[in-house]
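Subject: Predicted fold for EF-hand domain-containing protein, 107 residues

User T.R. writes:
Posting the sequence so we have a shared reference for the thread.
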Amino acid sequence: ALLRMFYTFDYDRAGGLSKSDIRRSVSWLSLQDPYNPPESLVDDLFNSCLRHRAEKGISVPKGMENRLRFPDFLKVFLSLRQKALEQQNEYRNSSHDAIGGPGLSML
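User M.O. replies:
I've generated the C-alpha cells; pasting them so everyone works from the same file.
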C-alpha cells in the first residue's frame, strides 16, 4: 500500500518524491489520522534524508538529488508515525492526570 501511495504522489513520474510531493502525501495521510504534523517537521525530515544521503556518499541518478526514493519516503513515513504515537501517548497521559488518576480501566 505504501509503495502504491509513493507512486501515486510521484506526479512527475521521476521515480522519486520532491518536497512538495512529500507534503501532499503527508497531508493526504493526515486526513486518515487525527495527527497532523506541522509542515516544518515534514520539511525537516525531508532535508534530513537528503543530508544523510550526502553524508554517507550515497549517489543518486542525475535529477534525483532533491527527491526522495522509496526507502527515504519510508523513513519519513515511519518517523511521522512514531511522532503520532508519541503524541497520542502524551495525550492519554495528560488526560489521565487531568482527571486525577489512571482512569476507570485500572479499577
